[in-house]
Design brief:
- There is one protein chain.
- It is built from seven helices and two strands; from the N terminus they run αααββαααα.
- It is mainly alpha-helical and 161 residues long.
- It has a two-stranded antiparallel sheet.
- A hairpin with a 5-residue loop joins strand 1 and strand 2.
- The relative contact order is 0.15.
């Protein structure tokens, strides 16, 4: 799996922002401190998140970042994609050249896994993560099972790869 720290940190930072914004900008220094993520790394991530339209920046005193869209309309897969992170279980990056420049015997298995992962992450919104965090904070520590909704638009882009 190629989901690296970049994708995980982007989702964590977006969740932190969603939890703490309450209609006022949140500083990257605050996110950095709460989540123990380097400030310079967050600056790189938020530059990409801003270009993707997921966050907006507010300049000046009291400035920081705000979520740019409704939390229900931002999926985990969109956050990961915004920071140029790819979810790919194939050894060849989908190029079908993993076994002596030819397609390996298990290529379809790994491609199918990619679709399943993308479907799962596309069906979980930032609002779902906020609600899960709120439930956990209230002491509801039962195992959380996300029930993602199918997002056909996101799936068709991966399935055609």
């Amino acid at each position: 799996m190629r989901l690296t720290t970049k994708g995980r940190f982007a989702v964590t930072a977006m969740l932190d922002l969603a939890i703490h914004e309450a209609h006022k900008p949140v500083t990257l220094a605050g996110i950095s401190e709460r989540q123990n993520i380097s400030l310079s790394y967050l600056e790189q991530l938020f530059s990409r998140l801003r270009r993707s339209g997921l966050v907006k920046s507010v300049r000046g005193p009291g400035g920081g970042y705000l979520i740019a869209r409704d939390l229900t309309r931002i999926s985990v897969s969109e956050i990961i994609s915004a920071v140029d992170e790819q979810i790919d279980a194939t050894q060849c990056g989908g190029n079908e050249n993993c076994h002596d420049d030819k397609r390996c015997m298990t290529h379809d298995l790994w491609t199918s896994l990619n679709v399943q992962i993308l479907q799962y992450l596309s069906g979980i919104s930032l609002a779902d993560l906020v609600n899960n965090h709120a439930n956990a904070s209230r002491g509801n520590v039962a195992t959380v099972h996300f029930s993602p909704q199918k997002n056909d638009a996101a799936l068709s882009s991966v399935a055609s790869s």
